[in-house]
Design a protein that fits this description.
five-stranded parallel β-sheet, alpha/beta, elongated, single chain, 11 helices
Length: 260
């Protein structure tokens, strides 16, 4: 089918037709950027093909940006953190090359785990959120939660006979970020429910955790030694372990400000 070109349209009529067509076809970026891009095309004497390509690229880029923003919002991060804002000079324990390699998200693609271990204020949560954000921007489904919040949700789901649905929901995301693991002791039931979530994801989808306790101290969180060993095994097998050290960046900043 050959579409006959419309001759004799005034500039105003053409602009109105483009605006209406973009609304019907749901092309909001082209609709808003068309006047500016049309003027630039006229100045630079673009061909019709190049002008059309500019319009379509602008629409695709903006849609990709909006999808990334939706995935980041859906992840439930408590605050915005980025790798650009991380001060590697303040923590020499962390190798920038390793972190930037993780930012490529190849480990998420392979379903491998990540453990960030260190004292409070050493950058664990910052890196956890920043790497989770990188994964969301790369197109992966990400979910962030606190360890205690996750366990409480699982206990409530079990009481309401909704446990399988809840575990399946957490199993569907590509990367599950669990923060503050090790801050509070979990009873046996809570630890077993958390173990079920980890088992559901084992070797299929990634789990990233941040903990203030070394693995040897996890027996204070998971009081059953055998269950503790099984959880450590699932969170470390084939994955990356990053130790952020013991020197608090926040404490150092506070002391520096007081001295100043």
């Amino acid at each position: 089918m050959t579409v006959k070109p419309r001759h004799g349209l005034t500039e105003q009529a053409a602009d109105a037709a483009v605006d209406q067509a973009c609304r019907m076809l749901r092309l909001p970026t082209i609709r808003t950027q068309f006047p500016e891009l049309a003027e630039a095309a006229a100045r630079e004497q673009m061909s019709y093909r190049a002008f059309l390509a500019e319009l379509l690229i602008a629409e695709c880029d903006d849609r990709a940006r909006r999808r990334s923003e939706r995935r980041i919002r859906a992840a439930g991060f408590p605050r915005e953190k980025s790798l650009r804002a991380f001060d590697f000079d303040a923590n020499p324990n962390i190798d920038p090359a390793v972190i930037h390699t993780l930012a490529t998200c190849d480990w998420v693609k392979k379903g491998l785990p990540l453990c960030l271990i260190g004292d409070s204020g050493t950058g664990k949560s910052h890196l956890l959120i920043a790497l989770g954000t990188e994964a969301a921007m790369a197109g992966y489904r990400v979910r962030y939660t606190l360890a205690t919040k996750l366990v409480n949700e699982l206990v409530e789901a079990a009481d309401d006979k909704q446990l399988s649905k809840t575990i399946a929901r957490y199993g569907r995301v590509d990367l599950l970020c669990v923060d503050e693991l090790g801050y509070m002791e979990l009873d046996r039931r809570g630890a077993e429910l958390l173990f079920q979530v980890l088992t559901e994801r084992e070797e299929k989808a990634s789990v990233a955790i941040a903990s203030n306790e070394s693995f040897s101290g996890w027996t204070k969180t998971f009081t059953d030694p055998r269950l503790c060993a099984a959880i450590v095994d699932r969170l470390t097998f084939g994955g990356n372990i990053i130790e952020t050290g013991t020197d608090s960046y926040r404490l150092a900043q506070t002391r520096a400000a007081q001295q100043a």
